[in-house]
Amino acid sequence: MLDSSEVKQVALAVGFDDCGIARADALGEEEFPLDHWLSEGHHGELHYMERNAAMRRDPRLLLPGAKSVICVVSAYPPPSRGECGGIAAYARQRDYHTAIKSMLRSLQQRLGIEGKLCCDTVPISDKLWASHAGLGWIGRHSLLITPRWGTWVNLGEIVTTEQCTAYSQATAQRAAHCGSCHRCVDACPNHALDSLFDATRCTAYYTTHHPRPMPTTLNPSGYTLGCDLCQLACPHNQKYLTGDKQ
Ligand code: SF4
Ligand code: SF4
Question: Which residues line ligand 1 (CB under 6 A)?
Fold first, then answer.
């Protein structure tokens, strides 16, 4: 049995900015409308999303006997106010997959546990589990909004068969504090957020995941890798933006 407070302390000691722990049970369609998203074809050519949909919903299919999902947050420097185009802020840092995996390995070693280390490349929804672990909520732009760093964070998890002394009671909250705001929806040049996030209309999808170029009918707004426009528009992110771009 792992002491939840100790897990969080060790996570901070290895360099993460926050940590929460969710019980490893299945996320329902209400928390994670994956079936609807796939049936609408919003995943485009990301066919692996269909193949491992059940696993994304239930970490016990990823690691048999899983009891806990230890979720971690690592903040990165946000872009400048008024910035537009170029390379998205997350991609200006050292490859976050490498950095997060390395810190997860340290966390795992210091806790002395077995487990599956996850950061983007493993079939588990990082942001949904982070929200379930009480680390933030999912905005209308489909990203995790944390109370201390906004959306300017990378995420990771350790799925483990160890039980913890306490679990977050949070559900994966969607648009919990968006109210009547639609700024991210209006900021997207390609209408990718008009209903559920549509990857096939998103600049980031074409510049980071997709084997083919972006259709000329879509507008990358000057971004060559990723896109920050919907995050730049979000009121929950404004206080984190740095000075005006020169
Ligand atoms: S990242 Fe850019 S293209 Fe994708 S949804 Fe946000 S604003 Fe639209
Ligand atoms: S811009 Fe507005 S609608 Fe979009 S995630 Fe932020 S608060 Fe929600």
Answer: 141, 187-188, 190, 192-193, 202-204, 227, 229-230
Inform me whether the pLDDT recorded for 245 exceeds 60. Answer: no
- Ligand closest to CA 88: 1
Q: Is 216 helix (H, G, I), strand (E, B) or coil?
A: coil
Tens of pLDDT, residues 1-28? 999 999 999 999 999 999 999 999 999 8
**Residue to mutate, 141, 230, 232, ligand 2, most ligand atoms under 8 Å from C-beta:** 141
pTM for the model stands at: 0.94
pLDDT given at position 209: 72
In the residue annotation, 186 being an active-site residue is answered as no
Q: Of all protein residues, whose CA lies closest to atom 2 belonging to ligand 1? A: 227
Supply the pLDDT for residue 128.
94
Domain boundaries, the chain: 1-246
